[in-house]
Amino acid sequence: KAGVTQTPRYLIKTRGQQVTLSCSPISGHRSVSWYQQTPGQGLQFLFEYFSETQRNKGNFPGRFSGRQFSNSRSEMNVSTLELGDSALYLCASSSGGGGLNTEAFFGQGTRLTVV
Amino acid sequence: AQSVTQPDIHITVSEGASLELRCNYSYGATPYLFWYVQSPGQGLQLLLKYFSGDTLVQGIKGFEAEFKRSQSSFNLRKPSVHWSDAAEYFCAVAPRGGNTGKLIFGQGTTLQVKP
What confidence tens digit (pLDDT) does each residue in B28-67 have? Predict the structure, then answer.
């Protein structure tokens, strides 16, 4: 079974631009969560999508948005990039039922650098 | 507020020595508990999880963890550390029975292994 695939692996953007990151979950998984990882703030939850609907949201500004498609693939978008958005963005896939199905499998991440 | 604390930011042990990484959580009810490991520039790999039952759980790579309800702790242990165990370790929690894939992470503990 293929794991969680995130593309691209590395990205360099200029301040003010926007960026779209992609995540393909494990086949059969309906939940996709996104996390931002920085040295200062650690791993912070951005949002979770389940069956094309945002089910949970972290405490990030509206510049961070996402969506999920009918095949469970998810995209995350960051508009008007700031230097502080430089981070490793991780996607996690789970079956989505909650409870015992909470076990999450992570992708390799997308390293975003804003210059 | 829900939180996870890993008191040790950095730990150095000699190869072959035993290891214990500490994790304490603050939560309304006993959550699901996880330990993840991350190698530099990579995603997170699940080492082990506790949902219910036996409070001593076995994971991959020779790791085990013990859940202690009275101390709100879930410490990770390994009897003999190998150089390849050098990585960053994260403790995480998820709400029990909740309809969410959201994980709350500790700040992480970086493990250095001396030859």
Answer: 788 899 999 999 878 899 999 998 888 999 999 999 999 9
Are residues B60 and B47 in contact, defined by beta-carbon separation less than 8 angstroms? yes
What does the mean pLDDT of chain A come to? 92
Query: B109, B101, B76: which is closest to A101 by C-alpha?
Result: B101
CA distance B106 to B115: 28
Interface residues on A facing B, Cβ-Cβ cutoff 8 A: 4, 6, 31, 33, 35, 42-43, 45, 48, 50, 55-56, 58, 88, 90, 92, 94, 96, 98-100, 102-109, 111
Distances A81 to A62, A63, A77 between C-alpha atoms, Å:
12, 8, 10
Q: Which residue has the tokens 């507020």?
A: B1
